Amino acid sequence: MRSATRYLAAHPRDLTLLTLWSLLEAGQTWLLGYALARALDDGFLAGVNGAGLGWLAVAAGAVAVAAYGTGRVYRCVAALVEPARDALVRRVVRRALDAPDDAAVSRLTHQVEIARDTLAGLILVLRSFVFTAIGALVGLFVLAPQLLLVVAPPLLAGLILFAATLRPLAHRQERFLAADEAVAGELGRAVGGLRDIRAAGAEHRVAAAAAAPVNAERAAAESVARWAGVRVLSVSVGGRLPILLLLITAPWLLRQGVTPGALAGALVYLTQSLLPALQSLMEGLGTTGSRLFVVLRRLLAEPAAPPPVRVAAPPDPYAISLSQVTFAYGPHAEPVLKGLDLDVPAGTHLAITGPSGSGKSTLTALIAGLLAPGGGEVRAVADRVLVPQEAYVFSGTVRENLTYLCPRPPGDAETLAAAERIGAAELTDRIGGLDATADPAALSGGERQLLALVRAYLAPGRLVLLDEAASELDPAAELRAERAFRRRPDTTLVVVAHRAGAAARADLVLELDGSEAELTRPRSTGHRSDPALPL
Ligand SMILES: Nc1ncnc2c1ncn2[C@@H]1O[C@H](COP(=O)(O)OP(=O)(O)OP(=O)(O)O)[C@@H](O)[C@H]1O
Predict the structure, then answer these.
(1) Which intervals hold domain ABC transporter (predicted)?
(2) Quick check: pTM over 0.90?
(3) Which residue out of 332, 334, 336 has the highest number of ligand 1 atoms within 8 Å of its CB and is therefore the one to mutate?
């Protein structure tokens, strides 16, 4: 409620327009009863049929004018609701990128649309009730103030009763939904294991376990039904009791000087305007409101953030230092790495090789801090950039794609120079320059990898981890990109390499094989003066 009020307060213009157009509706409500009263008193009952018909024509004209206003109202509601929907979509996408889960697509499509529709419905219903009530109450007062004495008290009592049901009913509906989900979860598990349940003769135990959530759901449903009953009572008190009272007190009202036309007009206000508006309000707030409440809660709930992996700084002169690192993907899984020690001096080019599944990507993820070791310690310099095999290119300009890892965007000359060094200059030209839009689907795997490599080159990381990041480039292009990183000042380069040449070019080679690891220095180095290597 608070965030909805804050949101509406942030859109004063649309809210003002909505109010102004809604006033037309209030005017029509008022005119409907008033014109009928006049048509009777000054027209048909006074024997002047022309005047009666004239007043009825005025009422009909008012309906047409109000219909125009209603059309405008819909536009204002759209202007209010669409930005809310966009904000929700942004939030859902950000959350899905931070912590992807299976429900992200449902949230993005189904739930956001429900939120938008229900929010629009709610604004329409609330607004309609407020303005209809204003129009009807003003009309009653204008016809005869005594009418308000009869109508206002039950109407007020009904509204108070209704307001009192809002919170308890919403809570009970939420409890019911939670109970419903618990039943679905319990039954889902049981259905998945039906064959085993029958084989083990465990039907009674499973049924007993399912009884608790089923009973809880039944109790929750009964509680919702009780409060829904109170809500129906509030419609009767607020919308129907005034009609009854008006009929019962009709003789008294006539004695007080209220005209028959005014009485008929009052009945029109009550039956044609107030009662339907009250019913829509209760229906709207009751069903739509709770739906919105539940959906928004889900959409806005923050996911449980995975605990950050802390990677401490390595001792000098190393960029990476691993001691006795053990890692397995599950408590009962074979360890991928077992007791691995590795010290990589800053400025070194390390190649990690080994057969498929030997743990090369796992090791780079541990160094990058994406995985936490099960045992031992991983230490690495803080500024790191990891380029995975699946290069990520998004629909945006080439410039945005190349520079989005830079805290301060580099100039165009620097960006183009980086593209040139990596060997992507021809590609950026072909796409249409830095301002052209990159279409990820139209680029080949190798082209996407080139863009990701330039992005990593421009990023401030002193430790660059290339996990088969050039696997789709031809050997010459791969060599060029690799050389660019080697020549980049103050850079430690770790390359996961399948090609033999890539390993031969490195200062150090870590060969992984099962849980064994061997660190060697290839014979053909000599392009760089290494600090004392821990071999
Ligand atoms: N998320 C995961 N959950 C469970 N097991 C995984 C997961 N990721 C990798 N593994 C397993 O861990 C082992 C090492 O995988 P990893 O991807 O690190 O090997 P790799 O040497 O990089 O392989 P490749 O050369 O094929 O890319 C493999 O047996 C793999 O099946």
Answers:
(1) 320-532
(2) no
(3) 336
